[in-house]
Amino acid sequence: MDKILRFIFILLLISPLWGFAQKKPEVWRYEGPRFGLDVSRFLMPYIQNATKGGFEIQADYPYKGNWFPTIEAGYQTVDDNKDAFHYTNKGPYARIGFDVNINKFESLTDNDLVFVGLRYGYSLFAQETLASTYSNYWGTTQNAFPKSNLSAHWGELVFGLKGELLRNIFFGWTIRAKFPIVVTKDPHVKPYVIPGLGYTSSDVPFDFSVTVAYRLPLIRTKTIPKPLKTGGRERQELDPNDPENNNQNENNNRGGRISPGSMGGNNSQF
Question: HEC string of the chain?
Fold first, then answer.
């Protein structure tokens, strides 16, 4: 009997501690700088005819919840060797701009983004034509042009998605429309491809990138970022339990009523 009483007494002592141990962890929202790698650059040699390689790194930082100042930098090489044409191109590039999240965050743990953004890009590259062969009426001609150091400036309009797969690990893709602004001219050969900009055969090149990123959770908050205002005046919901709101509704109803005497103006006498 004494053992049973001791056992019950121990259970009574442990039960509050057990309930404390089972308490749900407090939920926070984490924000901070995000660093990513464009994995699509490693696939370029396998999906394009030209031997195109390189890498690109990206970083952004949250500002006021929905704004993300962004910087991107990379290096690209091209070695296009065909039967009658051998062209090489290589150089670094960088972009700076911002993304704007247009998706509404539903909870503290919701970090998925749907964004649009702008970029300014710059590239400093060198190109060289090792062989260029063509035939005409008089025979076959083969030319080679020396290396030229060139540069390019362009703008970008981007749209993309970025979702949090695991805690602080993001995966997303981006579509880019690129608009050349200034490109240095080569007196011999027009740049075939520009690092960071793409092929010059189109006036508005399009590009696609796939990013894996990691966020440093440096900021902890209990605030969910408010969605961006899209214009127009928001309607304020009135609390029916608030007496001031009830008085306002009553006054509005009175203002909307039409008194019988006001319909006919002055009564006419016959």
Answer: CHHHHHHHHHHHHHHHHHHHHCCCCCCCEEECCEEEEEHHHHCHHHHCCCEEEEEEEEEECCECCCEEEEEEEEEEEEEEECCCEEEEEEEEEEEEEEEEECCCCCCCCCCCEEEEEEEEEEEEEEEEEEEEEEEECCEEEEEEEEEEEEEEEEEEEEEEEEEEEECCEEEEEEEEEEEEEEECCCCCCCCCEECCCEECCCCCCEEEEEEEEEECCCEEECCCCCCCCCCCCCCCCCCCCCHHHHHHHHHHHHHHCCCHHHHCCCCCCC
> Could you tell me if residue 188 is inside a domain?
yes
Q: Tell me: the pLDDT tens digits for 9-32?
A: 565 555 555 444 455 678 888 999
pLDDT digits (tens, 9 = 90+) for 166-218: 999 999 999 999 999 999 988 888 888 999 998 888 889 999 999 999 999 99
Domain count, the chain: 1
Domain range spanning residue 162? 27-221
